[in-house]
Every structure is written in structure tokens, then in C-alpha cells.
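Lecture 7, part B: from sequences to assemblies.

Below are the input chains for today's worked example.
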Amino acid sequence: MNRSNSGISGRSKGSDFLQLDPAEAPAGGLADWLTDRLRTAISMGHLPVGARLPSTRTLAADLGISRGVVTESYQRLTEDGHLAGRGRAGTIVVAVPLANRTTGRSRLRTPPRPPGATDAAGRTADTSCRSVPDLDIFDNLRSAPARIDLTPGVPDLAAFPRTAWLRAERAVLTDLEAAEFGYGDPAGTPALRRAVAGWLAQYRGIAADPEDLIIVAGVAQAIAMVAQLLGRHGVDEIAVEDPGSLGSRQHLQGWGMRTPPIPVDERGLQVDVLRKSGASVVMATPAHHFPTGTVLDGERRRELVQWATDGGLVIEDDYDAEHRYDRPPVPALRAMLPDQVIYVGSVSKLLAPALRIGWMLAPPQYKDELIGRKRLADLGNAALPQLTLAQLMESGELERQLRFLRRRHRTRRDAMVTAIRNHLPTATIHGAAAGLHLTITFDEGDDTTLAAAALQQGVKCHPLSWHCQLPHAPGLVLGYAARTPTEITEAIATIAKVC
Amino acid sequence: MNRSNSGISGRSKGSDFLQLDPAEAPAGGLADWLTDRLRTAISMGHLPVGARLPSTRTLAADLGISRGVVTESYQRLTEDGHLAGRGRAGTIVVAVPLANRTTGRSRLRTPPRPPGATDAAGRTADTSCRSVPDLDIFDNLRSAPARIDLTPGVPDLAAFPRTAWLRAERAVLTDLEAAEFGYGDPAGTPALRRAVAGWLAQYRGIAADPEDLIIVAGVAQAIAMVAQLLGRHGVDEIAVEDPGSLGSRQHLQGWGMRTPPIPVDERGLQVDVLRKSGASVVMATPAHHFPTGTVLDGERRRELVQWATDGGLVIEDDYDAEHRYDRPPVPALRAMLPDQVIYVGSVSKLLAPALRIGWMLAPPQYKDELIGRKRLADLGNAALPQLTLAQLMESGELERQLRFLRRRHRTRRDAMVTAIRNHLPTATIHGAAAGLHLTITFDEGDDTTLAAAALQQGVKCHPLSWHCQLPHAPGLVLGYAARTPTEITEAIATIAKVC
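Predicted structure of the full complex, as C-alpha cells:
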């Protein structure tokens, strides 16, 4: 789609957008034809969930047809639940048609949007159709029904230690002083800060004073606070890995940061490109790259340390570093560079994202300002879950949980690798024996089409495209941690079928 | 203190600041003299916690003494724990000297501040010394030791229903599907949104669709989200009640809003002044004004409705509206004005601030954008406490808790009123028979001095000055909900003694 060319006179009737040609339409059937073509494009993944359609005015002008026809077509697809109007932000694909369904209301969630609303990032329809999925893409994907959910980024949620959690909370409630139900230290409860300091020393090689830790509502909030902090210090861009987490990128952009992409290869972040880019801050996952699973190799690590020592600032997202299956995880970069690294981590991959508990360890010069941002954000995390988690950490229960998960996840990873070798022999498997997901790539094809087709067959995963800003091989990001080996094998076989 | 005049030549030696006159100092004892004068000023409340001192350069020039003397004096008070350097933000009073202590380290918390740090609002030393307590003033006050804590704004924390909470959480954990431990809807769990909608219908006269509710991490986060939203829509000021909550004002300012004060009298917010101010948004507490306890009277309520109908937007902070002891609370303004009111509430005054759970109900045109802000803030509140609270609401447990608290708080309020009549017969008691605190005013005096003196005697409360931007009678804001009648009586007697 090249919207800047729209409306130029003298062009032949027809549009770059989906190569639509109204001459194909039967007489009197323009609206039916257009609706059908758009539905097919959504179904095939050419218009993935989150894609923005041209305005009715633009598309009508491109096609040389009346605007009423385009409006009618958009309206029908909206009623079917495939599109949603977002006021000034345009019209968005919110759901893929289910297999063998062409009429009636979709079972996918299509939240009504009032006229005039923009998305939270305030973006309007100037982003190109394919490049940036919408901010609520994960919410929409979560709402889509599927038989087997391979969405990456969650541990085995069925393994959440419910009994241990409840036992720990009872112990906390028995001993708690009444005053602790009041407003607390915005940086977190002393008990959890002590427990996290112990955890980081043991598992991540980081020697931290509990007083220097800030408890946050997950890595998402940490990113928000860091973006606010750096924005106030005049920073307006934070370089990110490419491929790299779409969620993190969306968050940084939502808080006003540009996110220039720095390529990642099989040895990790290309630090020479980072250096040439002139960026002063980079967000990275050195211990286990998201989504490819690469571990930053020794030489690159030294280069990154040198770049930081020369004045760069690294936001180290240590998102699943404890989940290494073949050998001890590499120490966190923060362990070597306390003054150049803002370290962020959470229990989202250890216990559950729904707990919304994470931590941040910042260079001394930023600490108080970050506590100030946390105070302004929400006055501090809720106390009870903090204290319960501290209890689980201190009692050794979290360590038991991690060991249990490592064994279970390793089995599931092996099952996925085997299934991929059997069913998708041409796919390349990336990454170390670690983490909660795998990335595979193909020599050719369109991964958004593939992911959409897999979803139609009941298997949910991420196209690699979502996590890329630069050109890249097509691929899929496949979470295995939350599924049984049987489910994993069935899901991979299903993907192979639609490939 | 008039810092703009500092350094004007030809002035006599001496300073407007605390009426310091170096001629009083004994020969060779300038630093001792200055240190002593400053310590006394802090102790007497002339320099309350949060006050900003002139720079050493400015004060030295004013006094016609060497800068080294001022630096030495500030340094000694910093070592004693009374002052803290905040880099560009200047030097701040962080703790009052304890009674009968003049040397050694203070037991009050004095967080170290690195050079170059500014506070979270990015304010530097351009605010006048008395007017704006520092952002961490509540943290500092909380850390100060006291025998009897009358800090307003908390319910009886000892009454937190620990057993019921644990029982509800066990029920939740028993039935919870594994997927609910994953990332969830940023607007909140459906169960809690339904339960809150029911609560608001029953207690606040508001008919809300659960889908329109957004669960937030307390009113503080709601204020942050609203400030971000309105800022993006070009709003840069939100009028506030005066007196009015210092915490809310700090939050609005921290998120970039100016907060023009609109006076409140015995009938509530002076809507004619609001109208003349030209402000387009006001934050108000119509059901029970903070801190004076006034209920907006019928005519003012009609005026405010008219102002909003003419295009104004009201942020209705319904912070403790359920706590009315003599008659049913007035319905929320939101019940009448769904398109002109952003309604915010929480369980901080019903159960505990430490839960960090609140809700927001916005006009339709803002809903999606606010959900977007919540997503960018932290991806949504933690799920388990939401579901536990929903269970407490649905089971009637929260209603039982409210009835219990109402009875208990009423007794405590009566005890406080009686004690004030006995020990402080000249004080005026303000407000309706409602809430968790009382405000009293005096004909004359300095309330920061009084509050500091009370703290020295082990009684913690807020000077009314903290909650005022406009000139006002001196007063104290006294929380009674968390204290027994005996403690309350003793505390009031202590305050009477230092008066």
C-alpha cells in the first residue's frame, strides 16, 4: 500500500492496495466483490490482525469507485467482527474469519470503539499497513479462540503453586502488623527487596543492596518508568534488538521513544551497528535473546561492555534468564556494569504474568528519580502479594518451582524440537537450550499468512514479523512451556499442514 | 523568603529568610549560631518537612557572610539527618529534630540523594519555601516514629478481614483456570468489573455497564492516567479544591498539570469562582470534601452540574463516600452526568490502601484511550487480588465489613469530637458526620509549627497548610479511624498541651 500516491490523477483505475481491480467485479456487484476480496485478504493473512485499512475516501479514489461502496463494504466486515473503526486512527483488522465461516457475527472479540478515539499512543493512520501491529494486538490475539495456544512468553501456568502460595499468604497474614495495610514505601516492601536481592545474587550473579531495588508491576511498568526518566533527560530514542520483542517496542513507543532497530545475528546483538547508530541507550536481552534464543557471545559481550563503558546505557531485560536447561545461565550484564545498566526482571516467567511483580536495579544516579516515577505511577505495588512472594523466595519454594519448571519445560522443548524435525524438516530452529519458546524460520513464504492460517486451524502463535522492524526470513515464534508434549506435537503437525 | 531579591546590593546585612541577623552571632561562632537558628526553625515548624532552603550562595550573600559558613551549617544539619541535598533541587528539610535531641544521627529516615538528582516532578528550587511540601513528604512522615498516628486517609487497618480475605482467595484459587495466570485484559478481570458495577449501583447510585469500568492501582494511578489523557488532548491545568488533597495535587503536578485552586466554603466548592477561572477541568470530592468534610450543598451541586453541562469536565474523587454515619450518602455526581464526569474510587478506605485496587468510570469518548493508558502503565492490575476482592463483594463480605467499620468509625469520631470539645474548646470542628478524619481550625497560630510540635510529643497528623494553596485559617487534619477512643483522647490532650 502506498498511501502517499493515492488520489494522483491520471492513474489507471485500480489500487496498489491488495492489487484490487474493480474490473473484476460483476456488474452491480461492486460492494459484494470488494467485501469478498477484503475478507479473503484478512483470512489469508495479507491483512493481519492489527493492520490498518486505507480510509474509505482514499480507497474509493484509488479504485475509481463511489465512496459509498467502500463504506458499505467496511461496514459489513465490521458487523461480521473482522474490522473495527477507531475514529481518527482509521479502520483496523481485529479478527481473522474463522475457517468455513463467511457470515454472521464472529466469536472473536470486537470491542466497540467510539468515534474520535485514537489509540493510546496517539498514532493516527500514517503508519504503513503491515509494519506496526496495533497496540491491542496481544489483547485481540488472547481473545481469539484456539485449540492449542503456543503464544510465547508464559511459563506452564497449570504449574502455578497454588497451595504453596496460599500457605505463604496465610503465614504473611498471621504475622502482619496492621500498619502494613496502609500506604507503604513506593520502592517496595523491605521483605521482598531483601528476598529479590538474595535471588539475584544466587541466580544472576548480581550483588545488590536491597535498598537499591525497586519493586515494580512487571517489566512493562519498568519500561514505562525508564522511558519517562530518560525522556526527562532529553533522550528520545532507545535502540532495540531486531528481531526483538514487539511488546517492549510498543511500550517504548507508547511512552514517546523512537526505537531504531539494531540487528541480531547468531552471535547476538551487532554492537558495531549499535555504535555506528549513535544511539545512547539500548534495550537488550543478553542472557537469552527474545525471540531467537541466542546468547550474546563472549566477544560481543565484551564489545557491549566497552560501548557502555564509553558512555552508553543498557536496559537489560533479563526476562527468562533462569530457564537454562543445559548449563548455568550466563551472569547478568548488570553484574559487571552496575553504573551502565538498568536491570529489569520479573516473576512473569517464573510463576505467572498475572502477579504483575517485577524489579528494577538502576545505576545510583537514577535510583531516586525512578522511585519518584513509581510513586507517581501508583504509590507502589500492592503489599500482600509482595510479602507472599518474599515468603516463597525465602522458604525455598520458588527455587523448587524453578527446578520443577526447568525439568518440565525441557521435556516440552525436546518434544517441540522433535516434532519440528519430523513435520517441518526444512525449518531452521534457533536458539540455545533455554527459555519458554522456540523460533523457527523458513526459506520463503509470508509468516503472517502462515500464522493466520494456523489460527484458523486452531493453533495460536506469533509470526516472527511482529517482532521485526528490519527485513528478515519468515518465521514463527512458538511457546512450548504451557503445553503438553502431545499438544505440542499436534500443533506442529497442524502448522506443517497449513504451511 | 523572597529569593528574587537576594543579592541586591545596598541592603543591610541580614535576610528576610527567617529574619536571620548575623549581628546576633558571638564572635567566631557564626557557623554554630546559624546551625542553631536553622535547627530551631525546623523544630518549631517554621521550616516544615519538605521545605527548601536557599542555596548557600544566596543565603551567604543575603547575610553578608562567607559561603563556607553556610555550607558548614547545612552540612552539620545534613549529618544530623535534618536536611538532605537534592542536587539541582536544592537542600530540603527531611526531618524535624526529636524533642531534647540536638546531636547525633536522627532516627528519622533521611534517604541519601545523589548529586544531580531532581525530584520526580522535575521541580527545581523555584518554588517558594513554604508553599509546596516535597513529593516524598508522606513517605518521610510515615517513617517518622510516633506514639499515636492520626495521619488521615486510612480506615481501621486492624479491622482488615484477614480470614475472609484468605477464604475468598482460597475459593478463587480452587476454581481458577490456568490461563487466568497469564496476561489478562488491561481493563481488569470481568469478575471484578461486574462486582464493582454492582457495588456502585447499590452504594453510589451509579448504573454502570461492567464493560465501561477500568480497574486501576488506586486513585493515584487513576489520576496519573487522567492527567496523561488530558495532557494529550491539550489540557495543561486541572482546577482543584482549596483546601484540597495535597497528595492529589502532587500527583497532578507530577504529571505536568498546573492546579489552580478554587476555594471551598461551608457549602462546598465555589462554582462561581470555578466558572470565572476559565478552567475546563476540575477535580472534586462532592460527596465528602477532603479535608474539611463538607458535603456539596444542593444549590452548588446544581451550579456544578450546569458548569459541566456547559462543557466542563469533572474528575469526581469519591474517596470515602460510603462512610456516612448519620444518613445515606448523597449519590455520586457521576450518576447524573455520565458524559461529563470521570469517576474514580477505590477500596483504600473500605479495606486497605495496601491493596492498590481502585476503579475508574469515564465518559464513553475517553474509555478506550484510558484503557490504552492502563495497558501502557502496567498491562493491567494483578489478577488474584482482583478476583479475591470480587469474591468478597459478591459474597456480601465487603458490605458486612463496611457496616462494621461504620459503627466503629462513628464511635471513634464521637470520641474525637468529645476530646476536642474538652481539650481544645476554642478549635472549630468542620464537616459532616462522615469519613475517616476531622479537620479543626484555630483563630490564629501556625499549623506547621503545631504539627511539628505534636510530632515531637509523639502524635502524628497533618497541618491543614499542606492541603492549601490559598491563605486559610490554621488547622489540623486528624484521622480517627485507625485509633481507639483512648488513644484518640490521649492524642488530642497532647495536641492541646503543645498548642
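Note for the exam: Residues 1-12, 98-131 of chain A have pLDDT under 50 and may be disordered. Keep this in mind when comparing with the next example.
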